[in-house]
Amino acid sequence: MADVFSPDWLALREPADVKARSPRLASLVGGALPADVVHALDLGTGTGSNVRYLAERLPGRQDWLLVDADSRLIEEAKRKSSFGIARVVDLVEAVASPELGIFSGRDLVTASALLDLVSARWLHGLAGKCRQVGAAVLFSLTYDGDIRCMPAESEDELIRDLVNRHQQGDKGFGPALGPAASGAAERCFADLGYRVESEPSPWVLTPDARDDVAAAPSTGELQRQLIEGWAEAASEMAPERLRSIEDWRSRRLAHVNANRSCLTVGHSDMAAWLPEYYVPELR
Questions:
Q1: E strands of the chain, at which residues?
Q2: Residues with Cβ < 8 Å from 108, sequence gap 6 or more?
Q3: Helix 220-237 × helix 156-166 angle, to 10°
Q4: What angle is formed at CA 219 by the lines to CA 179 and CA 4, rounded to 5 degrees?
Q5: Cα 54–59–64 angle (5° rounding)?
Q6: How many CB atoms are located within 10 Å of the residue 31 CB?
Q7: How far apart are CA 222 and CA 208, in angstroms?
Q8: Model confidence at 214, in pLDDT bands (50, 70, 90)?
């Protein structure tokens, strides 16, 4: 697979992320946050895109702690963002530790494009930490297993199934939840007494505009990298199907190059808060 944690990939996907996210859930979770200063924790911050999105959508002054295990991404986050403190943190250890650590005093715990990479055990530990400090949570762009391609090709369903199997491999947190992550997170937080709301947040990547490319970010390169990554993941899961996977890859890339490709990649956003902390008039 391509390096989905590289700064270049994160920069390429950021416009699609912003377009797909649920502003309603970001606004809704604000009702569970203090009106004066919000102490927020961004897990797996990457280059800080989640913070850049939320900073102008949350109430009051904000005190951010941005954490990631990758030092190169933390350096990029420091360069691109002027919000709070960015630190290198092992997220597995942070959740497994008996100490509150980075969670201490936080009103909001948030992450983007993270939950489908983690294990059920890690997710339960995360929910427990959030419950201990009474934090509201907002998790965006969790992959849900839905991939749709137009124009259709006969191998599309096979590729999707192989990619979804690949998504369940260990991504550094134990066996990943992959497409099951959204449902698992909703149940996990609801079981701890949280009010939970979710909304779909799919990428809908249409052909690039021929006559007004400057009007919107190009999706062509994002589509190409997705197709290459899907083909590589599928080949790892079914090497005996390599020839048909390569044929699919070539046809899909030809659709992109001919400006006729549309890809839909399913994600969901989830907001959760403890009812006793919610202030309805801040909706």
A1: 37-43, 61-68, 85-88, 108-112, 136-150, 195-200, 203-205, 262-273
A2: 29, 33, 38, 39, 40, 41, 58, 135, 136, 137, 138
A3: 70
A4: 45
A5: 55
A6: 17
A7: 11
A8: very low
Residue 189 in contact with residue 271, Cβ under 8 Å? no
Would you place residue 103 in the very low, low, confident or very high pLDDT band (cuts 50, 70, 90)?
very high
Mean pLDDT taken over the chain? 92
Q: Would you identify the CATH topology of the domain 7-145+171-202+266-282?
A: Rossmann fold (3.40.50)
Pull the structure tokens for residue 63: 């005190």
Give residue 89's pLDDT.
97
Look at residue 79 in the predicted model and tell me its pLDDT.
Answer: 87
Q: CA 254, CA 214: separation in Å to the nearest integer?
A: 23
pLDDT at 211: 40
Half-sphere exposure of 53 (CA within 13 A, CB side): 26
Q: Where are the domains of the chain?
A: 7-145+171-202+266-282
The CA-CA-CA angle for residues 121, 157, 245, to 5°, reads 100
The region, left, alpha or beta by phi > 0 then psi within -120 to 50, assigned to residue 88 is beta
Query: Which pair of tokens denotes residue 47?
Result: 């280059």
pLDDT band at 282 (very low <50, low <70, confident <90, very high): very low
